[in-house]
Structure formats: structure tokens, C-alpha cells
């Protein structure tokens, strides 16, 4: 039986028809792995905003979340997506509990860029609400909706799920942090996948534009978490049984480690 603690970030791009990620999570839970799932759901948010005739605007990859958009973002991420994942995990035989960053003050966030509206960056993680769950064999499924101050009042804030996963992994000193994506890992200029990078090497690849787009926040989150987490990984979650393969030899994907581990 494994007693490892693993934080796994999943998103809508890796959960499609015939996907095995949730079944893999249940299998790993049954093997004794202590799992915390953090999820996004940006595509679902965009669909609901469009249905409600509300626009979607991004600044440097972050969704602008105004006063009108905030209830939709909260409802979709902390409600629809979160509870759907919990339902699906339990239907597969798993034990799961849905939470948001607000519950138990798990995530405290601060507004650093007012032009983004109700968008925060993680300032503190309190893992006390998570520990009893994983120790009792449950999978906490955490939405990135968190709490902080906006205009002098306590407010719900939209926080990037990649950052939430990294900060939870750091706070709990997790053994592993895994990001499920829809690509094979971090790719070089020729399309080859880097199997292992140090934090400084990953920073250089961001600076020279090799790592770009949606891979940047995941790489930066891995760099951050690598300071206290033994292993940070970016893998292709669309591959059948990708999560189970993580505990076999040569699983693929990209590992980012702190420089002294090189």
C-alpha cells in the first residue's frame, strides 16, 4: 500500500469521451495513494458565459472576471464542474468530497491586478481541512474559487487552478504534483519532449519562447512547487491510463526539479 501524497491538476481538455483519468484516480485511491485533485473548467465557464450573453476577455492568459461574470464563474467551477467530478468518481467506486478554496479557508487570495476584476493570486494555504479527508481515504476535489478582499470587503475570487495546485502541493509537502494536459509534455523547438528539466532550465525556456501559451503557467507552477515537492510533472492526460503509467518505469511527460537535484 502506498502512503504517498499526490496533488493532481485536471482540466476539461483532458476529460473527454472514453477518458480513463477518473477511473485511474479511483484505482490509485484503492491502492492507498493519498490524492488531492484540483480542477479548472475554463471551457465550461466560457460556454455558460456565452449562453448568458456575457463576453469572455483574457489578459495575458487570465480571464477577466467582472461583477457580472463572477456569479457564473463561481456557479460553474464551485458547483457544476466540481460536483460533476465528485459524482463521476463516486459512480466509479471512489470516495470523494467536493470543496472550493473558500471552504475551511483552504485558499486565501489577494487581488494584484484590479484590471482583471475579481481575480486573485494565492497568498496563503491552510491544509487543515484537507488532511482529515485524505487520511480517511477520501479524495478532496478542490475548485479554485477562493476568498480574499476586494474594494475593502471580503469577496469570492477566481484563482488560476494551476497556481492553486502548486500551492497546495507546497503547503502539504506532497510527494508529487501532476498536471494533466492534452500534449505530451514540454516540447523543444524540434518537437521532441523534454523528459527532465531543472527549474532554471525551465525558466530559460520560458524566457526564450520555447515554452509558451498555456504551458507557461503550468511550467511556472512546477518551478514554484519544486522547491518543496520532490517531483513535479506535466503529462498527457489524454493517453489511456496515463495516471497509472506514472507509477511504472519511463512514464513519459516532463519532470521539473529544483536545480540541486539535477
Structure at a glance:
With 262 residues, the chain is α/β, with parallel strands linked by helices. The chain has helices at residues 21-30, 42-51, 70-91, 131-135, 161-171, 199-207, 215-225, 242-245; strands at 5-10, 34-39, 58-59, 62-63, 96-100, 107-110, 119-125, 139-143, 146-150, 153-159, 176-181, 196-198, 231-236, 254-257. It has one domain (5-261): Carbamate kinase (3-Layer(aba) Sandwich).
What attributes characterize this protein structure?
alpha/beta; Carbamate kinase; globular; 26% strand; single chain; eight-stranded mixed sheet; four-stranded mixed barrel; 262 residues; 8 helices
Describe the structure.
This protein has an 8-stranded mixed beta sheet with strand order 5-8-2-1-11-13-14-12, with helices on both faces. The chain has a 4-stranded mixed beta barrel with strand order 6-7-10-9. It has 8 helices and 14 strands. The longest helix is centred in the N-terminal third of the chain and has 22 residues. Helix 5 runs parallel beside helix 7 and helix 6 runs antiparallel to helix 7. It is globular and about 50 Å long. The protein is α/β, with parallel strands linked by helices and 262 residues long. It has a single domain, classed as Acetylglutamate kinase-like (Carbamate kinase), CATH 3.40.1160.10. The model has no long low-confidence stretch (mean pLDDT 91). The relative contact order is 0.16.
Amino acid at each position: 500500500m502506498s502512503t504517498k501524497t499526490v496533488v493532481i491538476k485536471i482540466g476539461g481538455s483532458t476529460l473527454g469521451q472514453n477518458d480513463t483519468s477518473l477511473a485511474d484516480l479511483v484505482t490509485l485511491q484503492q491502492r492507498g495513494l493519498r490524492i488531492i485533485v484540483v480542477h479548472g473548467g475554463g471551457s465550461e465557464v466560457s460556454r455558460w458565459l456565452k449562453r448568458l450573453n456575457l463576453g469572455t476577455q483574457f489578459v495575458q492568459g487570465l480571464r477577466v472576471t467582472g461583477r457580472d461574470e463572477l456569479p457564473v464563474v463561481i456557479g460553474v467551477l464551485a458547483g457544476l464542474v466540481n460536483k460533476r467530478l465528485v459524482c463521476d468518481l463516486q459512480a466509479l467506486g471512489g470516495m470523494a468530497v467536493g470543496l472550493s478554496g473558500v471552504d475551511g479557508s483552504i485558499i486565501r487570495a489577494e487581488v494584484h491586478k484590479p484590471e482583471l476584476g475579481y481575480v486573485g493570486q494565492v497568498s496563503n494555504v491552510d491544509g487543515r481541512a484537507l488532511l482529515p479527508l485524505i487520511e480517511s481515504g477520501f479524495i478532496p476535489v478542490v475548485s479554485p474559487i477562493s476568498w480574499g478582499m476586494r474594494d475593502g470587503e471580503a469577496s469570492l475570487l477566481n484563482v488560476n487552478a494551476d497556481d492553486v495546485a502548486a500551492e497546495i502541493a507546497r503547503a502539504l509537502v506532497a510527494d508529487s504534483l501532476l498536471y494533466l494536459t492534452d500534449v505530451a509534455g514540454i516540447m523543444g523547438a524540434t518537437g521532441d519532449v523534454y523528459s527532465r528539466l531543472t527549474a532554471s532550465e525551465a525558466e530559460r525556456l520560458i524566457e526564450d519562447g520555447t515554452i509558451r501559451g498555456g504551458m507557461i503557467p503550468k511550467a511556472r507552477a512546477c518551478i514554484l512547487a519544486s522547491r518543496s515537492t520532490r517531483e513535479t510533472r506535466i503529462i498527457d492526460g489524454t493517453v489511456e491510463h496515463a495516471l497509472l503509467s506514472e507509477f511504472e518505469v519511463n512514464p513519459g511527460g516532463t519532470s521539473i526539479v529544483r536545480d540541486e537535484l539535477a
